[in-house]
Structure formats: C-alpha cells, structure tokens
Amino acid sequence: MKQLTFSCFLLFLHFYTIAQTDPLTQVHGARSQAMGNLRVHGMDTWSYFNNPGGLAHLEASAISVGYDNRFGLNELSTVDLVGAWKIKDGTLGLGISRFGGKLFNQQSLGLAFANQLGIVCVGGKLEWFQTQIEGFGNGNSIIFSLGGMAELSSQFSIGASISNLNRSKISKDSETRLPTGVSLGVFYSPIPQLELHLEIEKDIQIKPVVKVGLEYGIKNWIFLRTGINSNPSRMFFGIGLNSSRFTLDYAYGQNQAIGSTNHLSLNFSLAEK
User: Fold this and answer.
1) How do beta strands 104-117 and 90-100 pair?
2) Residue 56 DSSP one-character state
3) Which of 23, 130, 131, 246 has the fewest CB atoms below 10 angstroms from its CB?
4) How far is CA 118 from the centre of its chain?
5) What is the CATH number of domain 30-269?
6) Contact 134, 115 (CB under 8 A)
7) Which N-terminal stretch is annotated as signal sequence (predicted)?
8) For position 205, what pLDDT does the model report?
9) Beta bridge partner(s), residue 240
10) What is the pLDDT of residues 48-71, one digit of tens each?
11) If you write DSSP's letter for every residue of 130-152 in order, what string do you get?
12) Which is it for strands 120-133 and 137-151: parallel, antiparallel or unpaired?
C-alpha cells in the first residue's frame, strides 16, 4: 500500500514539476534563459545541462554557478554548479543541480563529454537523478542525454538535443517515467554582434514549444537579450556583462498567468581571453 501511495504521489509531482520546470527539464544558465529558454546553441559551460554537444565549442576551461527563483517561491528555486575542462580528446563537463525545498526536492550529479568532428560537434551526458519527498522516501535514476550541432558556415548552424534518451523511470517503485524531450534549433548571425535563434522543443507528453531568441552585443562587453515562448506564452529579457575572465548574466521571465522568474549566473574562465 505504501508503494502504491508513493507512486501516486510521485505521479502528481511529476506532472506538477514539468509545468514548474525541474532540474531535468529546465534550461540552465541566465544567458540561455534571457533569450527564451534556448537549449541547443548555448555553446558555454551551461551546455552541460542544455546540449552536451555545445561543450566542444568552449575556447577555454571554465566554472559557472547559477541561481533561479521562480514566482517568488523558495520551494521552486534551483542552485547549479558546473565545470568544463578542455582535454586532449575533447571537453569534459561535470555538473551538480538542486531544485526544491525541504519537503520536495530533486538533485542531479553527472558527467559529460563532447568532441569536435569536422563541422559537427557531438556530446553525451550520464547523470544520477534523485527525487526526494519528505515522509515518502526517494527515487533514484540513471539518465543518458545526447546532443550536437553542425556549423554549416560561420554565420549559420543547426543542432539538436535529446534529454533522458533511455526513458528512465522516476524510481524503481513507480512506472512513471521522467520527462523525455527533443529540441531542434537553428542559429543565424547576420553580423558579428547579433545572434538570432529559433528552436522547437517537444516533450513526449506535452505540446511543442516554439522559442525565439535574440542577443545584441555592445562593444564586446555588454549584451542585451530577449526572447519569447509559446505553450504557454512567456516573454524574457536579460543582460550580460563580460570581462577578461568573468561573465555575469541576469535574466527575467514573465508568465502573465503565474508570475515572474529571476535567473542569475556567474562564469569564471580558467584562461585569459
């Protein structure tokens, strides 16, 4: 009986956290969030979470930390730590994330690897994912994700990302599976200081989400960003400040029906730019 109750409770929370965006389904990093929760063409340390293939585009090893607050509730906040290291055979990534509060929380720990193969970069990620509910116990899963992109020219590229490719269950005591999402994206840069992004994201259990994002750079140290989403309709704004080694990004998201979200991330490059 306890296992049945636990499974039903997990099922409810599973669909609830899809709507609220948990560590497994959400886009990480304030830069990507400011442009409309873009996943495919981040090409920074946050690619570990969003599209592991993007790690291959890093010019130098780096470490990033991030904090997300959704709708003013600490119980819907996320804390992230991610690092990426350039090695002889490619780029190695390590990430930790925690979502939620004392009564309900989810955390992940994993390892990713990406490499450049001509015009194509490909990466994979293996992570341990835990869901914990006060008074009910916890569920543990192993998740495999895959992503990559193809640079067709210096101005145009396409990419894709698949999360939870193995369709892992939320726990061994439940038949409920964690979200599996597929993202397809196009990147276009008509001039060096302007980036345009278009993505379509589809979770197998919900309708597709269309994402459009824009970034404009001013004097190589300040970046203005905006983006929109469908299903549900959301708007995003943000700013980024770059120095030789540090990058500070902030994003603000607005959902008219639910409220606002705030995202902050800090990146430290281990090599002078």
Assistant:
1) antiparallel
2) G
3) 246
4) 25
5) 2.40.160.60
6) no
7) 1-19
8) 77
9) 223, 249
10) 999 999 999 999 999 999 999 988
11) EEEETTTEEEEEEEEEEEEEEES
12) antiparallel
